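Appendix B.2, paired examples.
Example (i):
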Amino acid sequence: MPEIPTTPRRLLVAAIIPAYNEAENISEVLAVLRNVEIINEIIVVDDGSPDETPERVRQAGVHDPRVHLLQHPANRGKGQAIFTGWHATQATFLLLLDADLVNLTPGHVHALMAPVLTRKADMTLGLFWGGRIHTDFAHWATPWLTGQRCLRAEILKHVSREAAKGYGFEVALTVAVHQRGYRIRIVRLRGMWHPPSEFHRGWLYGIRWRARMYGQIIRAWYIATRERWPNAKAFFSSLLKP
């Protein structure tokens, strides 16, 4: 693994974790991040969870002062949660992770950060590999939708806020990176996975929720790309280029 630079006196890396009803999972994710010394801040943005997610984060903060909890009084969507976390830090680099990851290890975190911190890429896309077939397939079929990334914080200045609403954040971010010519590198996250959305919400409601999510993703693609890539095929092909 490439050597990752350390700068103790400068805020280098902030992990931002948007969370909504993740009381069952977030403690394990935070426990892993607390074992990664290069991370200066661990910011959890609770997006109006009615469950015990905030309490789990507070408990983690007792053991590690790097853990900070920010809360939205009502659900505002993943994109806004990430923007809230970004505005709360002055870190040069951001690590974005979902709150429900299974089998996350410090090795995964270092692998995701290394290309960006060593200036070999401006953003990484972490794709599941060998975890669960349904999540593996979803990641490799639509890599631009992954929530596991490391990136230069400045990139968020170029993300369309309108496109990033709801579940459009990943698409809006990926489009902004391509529009500005930033470099992307894919990182395999071996053995990792996360439960499908239906697992959290029940299958009937989950199916309706997933249909709504993909509607917001299509909307985000349209808003973010209408000026640069009117041809959808050309846009998606560009995302797969090294």
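Example (ii):
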Amino acid sequence: MQRRISELYGRGHLEALDYQLVAGPGGTQGLEFLARRKSWGPQYLRVGLSLQDDFAGNSQFNAGARLSFTELGRYDAESIWDMQIGASPRIATEYYQPLSLQHRWFLAPHAQADAHDVPEIVGTQPVRIYRVRNFEYGIDLGRELGNWGELRAGVVDSRGSEIVRVGNPVAQLLPWHVQAGYIRLGVDRLDSVNFPRSGKAYAFTLRGEDRSAGMDGADSLTFDWRAAWSSGKNTLVGWVSGGSTIGGSPQPRNEFLLGGFLSLSGVAAHQIVRGN
């Protein structure tokens, strides 16, 4: 009962959900539930602002918002919309559709369009800056793992273009159009989303691209790991991310970027580029 209570409360629709034993007529006993809906929602808006500057003339600015529509239909589906303007504009949407009241299995169609810069580094200096534009859509089938994780697999259709934005042009870069499949495992046992004091969270994603049409590309493996430890009023949070391409021919669209705030903060944004 406590496990099911935690799962229901974790859906985020209630301010309080609890129960207690009560005495009934004739010496019987039962359960009395206390459930109080949120006084706000079921639509939610979150806004954010990001500004990075290395005090050497290089700055990046992004402003974003997330609009969430929850409690849709019989099974409490959710529709999420992300919008961002600035150095890396982006618009994305996902529709999370549980397949039962228990929320064990779900379908999640999604789509996104984005653009970002990828520098080509020689030594420590960028010689070119590519502008990568991408449009991608697909669908996932997933399995909720209690209130601590999920496993999902999906297919996507991705297409876009790469142009030289700064620097000498190179050989013509053709638009790409690839299909890909991936599998992702995410586990989150942190005790708080925003300010954790204990627990661990990690995610692994394996993605494979279909290059049968002759398009260049590469498969990839990425991971993300976070953990929090506390002693008294002090908390230490560690965060490690990594990835690697696997075979194929890495392109600017699937290279890994390092540098900037919370990503080797002492290095300028996207100053380190690796394709494998």
